[in-house]
Amino acid sequence: MNLPPAGRPAEDLLAEIARLKEHDLPVRGGQVTAYVYDTGRAAVHDAATRAYLEMLEVNCLDPTAFPSVVEMERQVVGAVSDLLGGGHGIFTSGGTESIMLAVKAARDRAARDRPNLVLPVTAHPAFHKAAHYLGVEVKAVPVDLETYKVRPADVAAAMDERTVLVVVSAPSYPQGVIDPIEEVAALAAASGVPCHVDACVGGWLLPWLREAGAAVPAFDLSVPGVTSLSCDLHKFGYAPKGASVLLFADPAMRRKAYFASAAWPGYTIINATVQSSRSAGPLGGAWATLQALGREGYVELGRATLEATRRLRDGLAAIPGLRVLGEPESSLVAFTGADVDVFVLADEARARGWFLQPQLSYAGIPANLHITVTGVTLSGVEAMLKVIAESADAARERGPAVLPDGLVELVAGIDLDAIDDATFAELSASVGVDLRPGSGQPEMAVVNAVLDALPPASREAVLVRFLSVIYGG
Q1: CATH class of domain segment(s) 46-290
Q2: Topology of domain 295-398, per CATH?
Q3: Which of 411, 400, 415 is CA-nearest to residue 449?
Q4: For residue 124, how many other CB atoms are within 10 A of its CB?
Q5: The whole model's pTM is what?
Q6: Residue 37 near residue 377, CB atoms below 8 Å
Q7: For 280-293, how does the pLDDT look when each residue is reduced to its tens digit (9 = 90+)?
Q8: What pLDDT digit, counting tens, does each position of 9-39 carry?
Q9: Distance from the first to the final alpha carbon of the chain
Q10: Cα–Cα distance measured from residue 87 to residue 187, given in angstroms and rounded to the nearest whole number
Q11: Residue 82 near residue 132, CB atoms below 8 Å
């Protein structure tokens, strides 16, 4: 973009934003089954937007300058603490930041050489990201390939004198199942190791599903041995993006997440989060969403979500060739195909206006498609199932994504650091995946099929180059 020589009127800018968003996935209506969370209640979203804008220019850097930040955060964190077994919290920008701070606190508390954390292969990659940034080794353990839950004995076997944190999920994102938290937390406590529950998805969902009649096991800070928990409010709290809460059972552990520096001649530096300056807009949006819905609103959304999930699971089971993975205990559902390429199915569904999230095979878990059921899904679940059935038929007729002979071996053998982005873009275009500007949205079945055939390290290298090419410059 060239900076304009003179300022442009707001109307022109908004018109251009509308043009830029023309090919975006819709954020309302439930046809996008990942990334966005919709209550279906316009008044709630409007209240959050107005509160977000009201707090947009307030800076969370110095709470003494803006006491509104302190009061709002106390109320938001207090609501999460009341629902999830108590604790002392921090409001963060999202699950990744909450997880990063939990890993930092555990590392700093232990102060061990070559620290490691033990987690299931189904734990969110945010833990790997935190470990990468913080110099912590990851010890990943397998899950049971029928239940997709981690086995406590495997966790116990992986722990050693350098383990600073054990991780379990409520639920794990890939298949929506809850790890055996009570057993794992007890094992960790017996060894004096903190146990973090990743409830970024389930923290503000599972209690309402329980009230709606679902059998939800204990998972929060009330469980002995659980020392910290992350809960995203921009997921099933339905707040605008940028809203998560990290809870610690012990306030001393929370202080380990903080950062302070007095080794310079400038203003006082004390940060509760990774960021320093940050807008209070997300905090205002989260506060307003919680207030606008209230307990009654969340219970109603929980009932609708539970019913929609039941109908979806039953409907998928009735579609020939499709199989739900595991027994989902939340509102995350993953399914695979016996005689249909799920990556082709996803492309067919997108051509019909529905986005289903592809998940690559890993650690014995087959490639599958993931659906996040939200409060608005119930009104469109039959339409979704119809599209999935039609897309499965179309994918079966098309057959699996065809990869040119030798392509996977070629990609795996390329030194990606030795070629520039333009060469990588040409290579992609030669197999029908044109990422160059103006080429439009490519079908992703071939991309996903190539990635699925590569080992994880090669997948990661290719993904980095895809991102670099897409953004360019």
Answers
A1: alpha beta
A2: Aspartate Aminotransferase, domain 1 (3.90.1150)
A3: 400
A4: 21
A5: 0.95
A6: no
A7: 999 999 999 999 99
A8: 999 999 999 999 998 999 999 999 999 999 9
A9: 11
A10: 21
A11: no
